[in-house]
Amino acid sequence: MDSDPLAIDDLPPRNNFEKFIRFLYKSVDGPITWFRESVVEPNRPKYYYYHRQFRRVPTIDECFEGDVACFYEANSQFKRDKRVDSQILTLLRQRMEDCTWYERDDHREKCKKVTADYELATVNWFIKYGDLGAQPNAREALMKQKHRMVWERRNGDRKSVV
């Protein structure tokens, strides 16, 4: 490998035993490296992202009545979005805890932005996914959103207790 900073060919062998070990290494690693560089890598498609990207599917409010496949796809998309949002919340919580631990006595001033970001994300997560039960689905989330919009229309600027 050319990019390896400690390649085996950088220094000459110091004795016959080291020459023998290098010969064994090259006799095993040589064909494997050749096969990978000549056959595997040219035939492998290039991925520019480290994770699988799913195409966005229609949300459940865009599905026709009785379209079971659309309901399933919308529900799968909802579950993926919930997992992503939960992981983002976990990362923000970890950042806040790390900042609090690192700053110790001054964490109220120095970690104010991180804490505010985490609290805002927590409120937003709860608005979207909170009180949906153990097995939430896209239909229940849509109904929760609809009920929240109706409540906000009736009550105006008054804040809900979240």
Walk me through the structure.
64% of the residues lie in helices and 0% in strands. It contains five helices and no strands. It has helices spanning 16-43, 68-103, 107-110, 112-129, 138-155. 5% of the residues are buried.
Secondary-structure map:
Layout: H1 16-43, H2 68-103, H3 107-110, H4 112-129, H5 138-155
Helix pairs in contact: 2-4
Summarize the structure.
With 162 residues, this protein is an all-alpha fold. It contains 5 helices and no strands.
- Extended strand count: 0
* Mean pLDDT rating: 88
Structural class category: mainly alpha
Radius of gyration over C-alpha positions, nearest whole angstrom? 28 Å
Tally of contiguous helical segments: 5
Note the gap between the termini: 57 Å
Biggest sheet statistics: none
**Helix-strand pattern, N to C?**
HHHHH
Tell me what portion of residues adopts beta-strand conformation.
under 5%
Low-confidence stretches: none
Helix content: 55-70%
Give the overall silhouette.
Answer: elongated
